[in-house]
Design brief:
single chain, alpha/beta, Rossmann fold, six-stranded mixed β-sheet, 19 helices, elongated
Length: 606
Amino acid sequence: MNFQEQINKTKITLFGNIWTVRLVKLLRYVGGGLVAWWITKSKYLFAISPWQTLQKILKWSDGNVDSVSRAIFVLSFAGLLIFIYFLLSGWLVNWLIKVNITPQQQTQILQKKTYTLDEKTSYSVNKFDNLEITTFRNYATLKGILHLSKGTQKKSINFVCHFAPSNLESYLETYFLHNNVRLRSFCTWQKITLFFLFLILLAGASGHVCKIYGDTKKLPAETNLGQVIKSKLQIEKKLADEAKSRKEREEKAERYRRAGITDPKNIDVSFEDIGFDPRQEGQGSLKQIVWECKTNARMIKEENANKKDLVGKSQHMILFGPPGTGKTMLAKAIAKESNSFFMNLRGDYFKVSIAEELGNKEGQSLGEKVRSIFDIALQELPKGSTIIALIDEIDQIGGEISGTAAKEFQTVVDDPKYANIIIIGTTNFLQHLNQAALRPGRLSKKLLVSYPEPTELFRIIEKVLDNFHRDKYDKNPDFFGRLGRIAFRTKFAKKIWEEMTKNDKYKIKYSDMGIKPGGKLDPEDGRVLFTGADVWKVVYEEIPWVSPKVFTETAIVKAVEKVYYYNRLDWRWMDWARHYLEAEIFASRNQGDDRKPQRSPGGPEM
């Protein structure tokens, strides 16, 4: 028994009963109903049920073109899917319930009236029913029902056999003379009708698929195929949730921005940005300042991790010194180091008028202003978060008369409610601060951030050049001579440093400022008063203005000269220099350091 005969034997055994065949056909229609139900439940494919779609089509005069066309497309797509199901399932059922009779078996059945499958299985052929012959060119097919018997067993099975159309007349005359045989051509009107119906449904379904594709393009690019075949409601809900979450993040970021709050993850300032190098040996002023700031940052971090059993305690700080020396950057670096949120406030926001100081209140008092801002910060940030509140120009807090305003500010600082807010004030005028603010437990930690020494200035130049190359290179590589970051920094850092520190016209003598340094310093010694802000102006503003096409050493000379000239035009510049250099010399004497220039490893000789 070959494979085809084995299949025929199995089919006769399973589907030789007419009721079994009817049950299989019934299951096919039940399956069609389930497919139709599943299709309507796929909300991503159909936003509304087919009945609602049909109602929209019937009431086309009341709807707009888009809704009616979408309804037609949806109904066409549903019809096409059901059409394909019944087409494929019909082929499958016909193959299951129909045996394929070979030419050898045809002769045996028609002449001997027996149907032999193997040596043990042989059926007697009783009669043929529902015979139908279809011809197409050189091909003829005979279909019908074959009634078989074997003892008391009776079987009825659909059969199909093939023969050449040239033998059609002899077949009919010899074997089927007394049987009612229907002759059909291959192209019947039913098949043509189904074909055109298929084309119409296909066209409508294509319109629906195009519409789905347009909707899918609106989905996020990372949406995978598994998500696309989910229900439309689920996807829309997910998109709505994502939009809501994105909106909440944006609103939160906007509230942070309005309150001047920066997440520690978004702080891009470190201690190295102001010229500090942890590998540098010596006791330079910047090294001492950074050590103090790092110590405070470590204490803040430890307090966040463990509220008890701490040896030290974080402190509010005052960073004072001339403009442009990196006080604000130090405060940001402390926030970054301690993993704290950062608030950037200005002291003049809390300024009150003389009338308000004298009791004639027209709005919020200073204490109310400070509390309102701190309350917003505590409300917006996660509970227990530490905030570094930088108050720039803190000497502007209060009014022109010391007294009530300063006391209100200190009341807020002392309030346990704001224990997680560490205040870092910056000022160019320490002497303008109310002395009550500098008492222990308040803004008691005072650090002088003075002019950078030559070694520190060199590291600042290197950092600024690195940042400048990172920010501007992609926009105009020719301006950098197409040099890489390290090559660019190596080529120009020493030139800028030498122009600032070696050129005598930029050195201010202590005697010219009216300072008597004493100790090992001579009044005729000169001091360079360039700051980190000056370096930034030279690199980012003046050199591109002086030489727009390419970064050159000639442009460096002109840019440094212009920045120095602008500094000298400010009448306060010399006063700041005199005041803070005196303070610097006084502090260095107490530390046993006469501020002798030091050598930077890997940097230029001093």
